[in-house]
From TrEMBL, chains A, B:
<dbReference type="InterPro" id="IPR018531">
    <property type="entry name" value="DUF1993"/>
</dbReference>
<dbReference type="InterPro" id="IPR034660">
    <property type="entry name" value="DinB/YfiT-like"/>
</dbReference>
<dbReference type="Pfam" id="PF09351">
    <property type="entry name" value="DUF1993"/>
</dbReference>
<protein>
    <submittedName>
        <fullName>DUF1993 family protein</fullName>
    </submittedName>
</protein>
Amino acid sequence: MPLSMYQASVPVLLHALGNLSAILNKALLNAESRKFDAAVLLQARLAPDMFPFIRQVQIVTDTAKGCGARLAGVDIPSFPDTETSFDELQQRIAKTVVFLQGLQPAQFEGSESRDIVLKFPHQTLNFTGQDYLQFFVLPNFYFHLTTAYAILRHNGVPLGKVDYLGGGG
Amino acid sequence: MPLSMYQASVPVLLHALGNLSAILNKALLNAESRKFDAAVLLQARLAPDMFPFIRQVQIVTDTAKGCGARLAGVDIPSFPDTETSFDELQQRIAKTVVFLQGLQPAQFEGSESRDIVLKFPHQTLNFTGQDYLQFFVLPNFYFHLTTAYAILRHNGVPLGKVDYLGGGG
């Protein structure tokens, strides 16, 4: 039996969001043990014209909830970008997890061929549901997750690939 | 019609490998215009205990060819890690593309439930084909692709998200 759109999206996103939450906990503990303000990490970035850590985490959750909502055909929950702490980022991740957990596999049936339209300030992107998942959601989701991880590694937070992939990966 | 294992893997990997090749070209041109030896970028890394750029690119191709071979049930082509230039990395990407292009969708039928065993020096991982693709291949592939991109951005190579996602993304 081939992959369903639900199986190809929701469990994957939930698994990675759990890994991200654990990574944030490790970063916070590391800041405490090295005696610097963890808020410094929230504003850290890899290049002056790349987003800081806090924005990378916000976009990870935006990509996940946007995917779940669009493929299930429901409204995208709006999370204002007002976080200023690790604790508030954890709450945002948790809200995203609860939203995705509330979606049912039946809502995703037929979503592979559904028209998905993404409107940005300077362009509009049109996808089928399948292309949206494969060529937009997953590469973007992992891009921002990896960049968040890389910002922490660049700043000396002790993490390894197993933290990114999760247990058994 | 749900996703086939072929559609969920080969076209996705080929698209991203094409993007990576274009990113390498931009990095090489940028080194020339800034008048430094591009080989410096090959050894650049984001943390002392992370792999350098050249290894990130090698792992991207390893992950892609390993995925294609394991899911199609054929031998994994062996590429020795002997590259020392952008040109040789491009040849490795091109060999990976040719290998993936030679695989047929029919070879992937039933691969979602095939047993996949990955042997590492200190552990052995067991997956179904579907879990291997979703929880190992795609996160790893995008991890190393994004880290390669981030190393270049950290070193001032002018790239944007569109280079990573490819045209229209």
